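# nightly structure sweep
# worker-07 picked up a monomer target from the shared queue
# config: single-sequence mode, recycle default, output format = structure tokens
# input follows
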Amino acid sequence: MNTTTRYCGQCGKPTEKATHDRCAARAELEPPRYCAQCARRMVVQIVPTGWTARCSEHGLLHSPAVNAP
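# output follows
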């Protein structure tokens, strides 16, 4: 996979190939579902204080409200 390609965290499609207006609106309310580096589906856990998302290849992401473990 090309490492310079970035992917949408909501739909998993390359960000430069399409407009992602709906995805941007969803991203304000929902955690990312796809890894921005490889487009793999992530394991997402939502807790009262925020969310965490884990890519099997690239590791853990977290919302600003959640402290990184």
